[in-house]
Structures are given as C-alpha cells and as structure tokens.
Write a structure and sequence with these properties.
Length: 161
C-alpha cells in the first residue's frame, strides 16, 4: 500500500498545504462556502501553476501528450501555466468571479476529457499537473482533480450571489 502511494507523496503534501492555507484564509476572511472554494481554487492554481513554470519546456512537452488543445497548439501548452496563475490571482482577489468561474469550468472540463481519453487507452504517462518537477503518474486522481475544479466552478456559477 505504501509503495503505491509513494509517487503521490508530493501531491498529497501540496494538497495538504493548500487545505491549510484555505482553512487559514477562511478562518480569517471567509464568510461563506463560496469563499472557502474560492480560496482553495486560488491556492490550487497558484501553486500548481508555479510548479509548471519552473520547467515550462518540460511541462509543455508532457502536457501535449494528453491535453486536447495542447496536442494541436504548442503555444497553448506554453501558455497554460500562465492561465492557471491568472485564474489563481483572480480567485485570490475575487476579480470578475463569473468570468473566472466560466473560464475555469471550460478549461478544467476540456482537460478532464483529455485525461479521460488517455486513461481509457491504458497508457502509462506522467501527469503534468505539477509540471515535471515531480514524476506523478496519470491516474484517476488526475481526472478527479480536474472534475473537482470544474465542479466547484460550476457550483459557484449556478449559485452566484
């Protein structure tokens, strides 16, 4: 069991840190469950985007192996980490919440479709979710991560204040 979890330790640690940051922000500034989701998404996109930028060339190459748009556009593969960083700042500062949530829903839904297609092929490839700093295999966890982010964005779209 421990051996199966070993490749996911960086992801577990980073998500734990995101949850701690989210709890701290929610305790200090949050009033609603929208705030908690917004803080989680802010830290998720900022941290994950940062890891992608560390080795952007490696990220772009890895991302092109499974993302539907990146397979057709090298520009998109290089731009994607900056989209995540922009979304992270937009969530952190609550900028244009409706547009931010719609963009997140679209981006993460497209990503989820690409991940699902690759998982259904049964190929073993590296997930580019944390760039290529860590070698994390693409599994159903990757799909769950994309669907969670898309689902939170959709929930915030449907329950706008």
């Amino acid at each position: 069991m421990i051996q199966k979890l070993k490749p996911f330790i960086p992801l577990i640690v980073i998500v734990s840190i995101i949850l701690l940051f989210t709890a701290g922000m929610q305790f200090s500034f949050g009033e609603t469950w929208h705030d908690a989701m917004r803080f989680f998404m802010a830290f998720f996109f900022l941290i994950f985007g940062f890891f992608k930028v560390i080795n952007i060339k490696g990220f772009a190459a890895a991302y092109r192996t499974y993302d539907l748009i990146a397979q057709r556009s090298l520009w998109y593969a290089y731009a994607y980490p900056f989209f995540e960083l922009a979304l992270g700042f937009a969530y952190l500062f609550n900028l244009y919440p409706f547009i931010t949530n719609v963009a997140t829903f679209i981006l993460m839904s497209i990503s989820a479709v690409g991940v699902l297609m690759e998982l259904s092929k049964g190929k073993e490839i590296t997930c580019a979710c944390l760039g290529v700093v860590f070698k994390i295999p693409m599994t159903w966890v990757t799909l769950a991560e994309d669907l969670l982010m898309a689902g939170m964005a959709l929930a915030m779209i449907l329950t706008r204040r």
